Amino acid sequence: MIPAAKTTIVPVHFFRSGIPALLMLTLLFSLVHIRAGRGKEFSMSKQPVRILAFGDSLTAGWGVVPPSSVPACLETALREKGIAVTFINAGIPGDTTAGAIKRFEAALACDPDMVILELGANDNLQAIPTDRTAANLDAMLQVLSQRNIPTLLAGICLLRDLGSEYNAGFQALFEELATRYEAVFYPDYLAGVAGNPEYLQRDGLHPNLRGTQEIARRLLPVVTDMLANFGEPGADKLQP
After folding, report:
1. What is the largest CA-CA distance in the chain?
2. CATH architecture, domain defined by 21-232
3. How far apart are the first and last CA of the chain?
4. 102 CB contacts (<8 Å, ≥6 apart)?
5. pLDDT at 211 exceeding the cut of 90
6. Domain residue extents for the chain
């Protein structure tokens, strides 16, 4: 099991006594707040933006060294674009939606500014009924919606053929939930990687280093757009 990445939080500096009152007021009013998603507040003093990557082994980076997981690759790519972000990797190998929901509240304790929700592959592999998968994801998305946390919901391609009825239900549930909760929908987390030996480990399921980089490359414009839409402070896109 690959451990979750540590949270990095930039400390808020307190004003020292003796600063002239006018200067102190100026500094206080310079902490410009903006709105994000359905009401998430951000402050200029709150950098970098914290993105919680919550999922299974595809998020955790099973089989690759931690700096090469998809969240780590995304963080590197965003920082190279001048966007100040920190990813919290809360991926657990083998996790199903039923297992994930039990630890969801604890994962949110890091107070993320955005969440990438990637789950469902193990539900498919374990033939868990689609109504249970949908109900678990629904419960997590409801919490995120209530807390006004911008969310990217990633779908997943079928990794196991379980018949036409199951297959159709599984493929449809992600988009339906994303629409219901106004989450950004990314149709297939393994797009361009699944079925391609160059991007997969020997098990034929988990991405290798090239695979995690490819997933991050495809996700990058989507995540960048999300950050731009709510004025990511590290990208110098804020207007006073």
Report:
1. 72
2. 3-Layer(aba) Sandwich (3.40)
3. 44
4. none
5. yes
6. 21-232
- Cα gap 84→101, rounded to integer Å: 29
Peptide bond into 207 cis (omega under 30): no
User: What is the identity of the amino acid at 193?
Assistant: V
- Kindly report whether the peptide bond that precedes residue 48 is cis, defined as omega within 30 degrees of 0: yes
pLDDT in tens, 25-72: 333 333 323 233 444 444 333 579 999 999 999 999 999 987 899 999
DSSP 8-state class, residue 20: -
Spatial separation of the C-alpha atoms in residues 234 and 220, rounded to whole Å: 16
> Given its phi and psi angles, is residue 113 left (phi above 0), alpha (psi -120 to 50 degrees) or beta?
alpha
In this predicted model, what pLDDT tens digit does every residue of 92-140 receive, in sequence order?
999 999 999 999 999 999 999 999 999 999 999 999 999 999 999 999 9
Length of the chain counted residue by residue: 240
Q: What is the side-by-side order of every strand in the sheet holding 49-55?
A: 85-91, 49-55, 114-118, 151-154, 184-186
Q: What is the mean pLDDT of the chain?
A: 83
Distance CA 237, CA 240 (A): 10
